């Protein structure tokens, strides 16, 4: 005996499509939030770097590591801030 033919009703198909649309909208919204946060991180690193580069080279600078601070040179801090900006930019491009 043949198995009964199952037909997908149009309302069932519409409901599934609606669920996919909602899921996609949520993913887009999440990506937008992440892009906004990464943009803030990038801007903050850029502004900090601008301020750091105006200081004389002999200025004592400290990097926060966990619950302590480590003395770092201006060059090291500058490179870390540039790297932070680069990583944020890469992640933004991945999300767009």
From TrEMBL:
InterPro entries: PFD_beta-like, Prefoldin. The keyword Transcription does not apply. Keywords: Chaperone. One of its GO terms (molecular function) is unfolded protein binding. PANTHER family: PREFOLDIN SUBUNIT 1, PREFOLDIN SUBUNIT 1-RELATED. Binds specifically to cytosolic chaperonin (c-CPN) and transfers target proteins to it. Binds to nascent polypeptide chain and promotes folding in an environment in which there are many competing pathways for nonnative proteins. This is Prefoldin subunit 1.
């Amino acid at each position: 005996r043949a198995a009964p033919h199952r037909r997908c009703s149009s309302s069932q198909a519409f409901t599934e499509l609606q669920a996919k649309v909602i899921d996609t909208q949520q993913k887009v919204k999440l990506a937008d939030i992440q892009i906004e946060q990464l943009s803030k991180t990038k801007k903050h690193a850029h502004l900090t770097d601008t301020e750091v580069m105006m200081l004389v080279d002999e200025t004592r600078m400290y990097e926060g590591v966990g619950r302590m601070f480590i003395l770092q040179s201006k060059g090291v801090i500058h490179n870390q801030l540039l790297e932070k900006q680069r990583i944020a930019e890469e992640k933004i491009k991945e999300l767009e």
